[in-house]
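Practice problem: Lysophospholipid acyltransferase family protein
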Amino acid sequence: MLSRKLISLWHHIRYLPLLSVLTMSRWRGFDMRSRALGSAIGTVLRWFPPAIRRFDREIRHVYPDMPRRDRARLRRNMGRKMGQTLFEIYHCAEFQTQHGRFSASGPGLLALENAKAAGKGAIIVSGHFGQWEAVRAILKSRDMETGAVYRRQSNHHYQRRLLAGIEAGGKPILETGTLGTKALVRHLRNGGFIAILLDEKYAEGVRIPFLGRPALTSLAAAQLALKYDLPMVPAYGTRNPDGSSFKVDFEAPIPHTDAMAMTQAFNDSLSARIRTDPDQWYWLLRRWKGA
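Answer key — structure tokens:
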């Protein structure tokens, strides 16, 4: 009982800074609130030693010779953008209604429309890059509601807000694990669309190059696409320089070959995006740990 109370207290303490920023800015407009959280997280990334060490360790995997000043600038910019992304996810119901913020292009969009017309499911693959919820916002606005796979948060405050946010973006929301996988298969076989972020470390995965370094990666998305003959479409919501609008690119479906080659094709696709806009990717994922 005492242990549970201590855990609950620690959850409250960890959530308090975020709650404070959200509360202090709640009477402002959407953009001002978004930027307030972005500034707060940018400040943490600028001054908090554990965050600095973690970021520097990860960035050196890809840019070992990047000067310290450039690392610091990239770290702050990433923090600001990720703070805005977090705010938009927590307020996804409001975010989804702002259609004027999104522009969509790319051959993958037509492929998804064709799958929808044929009553087939589809798999949209992306990463923690830009605003990935902008991808589902575009699809939902075009009558292609798309569910998502997510990893449960250990802090129950973050878990509650995260789940509510991503549910507003489209259903079903499926938790990683055996039960979630079974529900995912049923959803796809019934003609549903699902979005999967493939850039997190997957302990049971295979080592596939990502940004030039081997990284433990799940083959599940490609395996499902092959097994059920579904399009696997990379899609990215890049944040524009104004900070509040997004260019959503739906790349051509990855050709069906084998699961390893298809997953490598996605890794290469996302890697190219990150190298072009490195401050739009969340560098704190510990992507190469254990690889």
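Discussion: Residues 2-93 form one domain. Students who identified this feature from the tokens alone can consider the problem solved.
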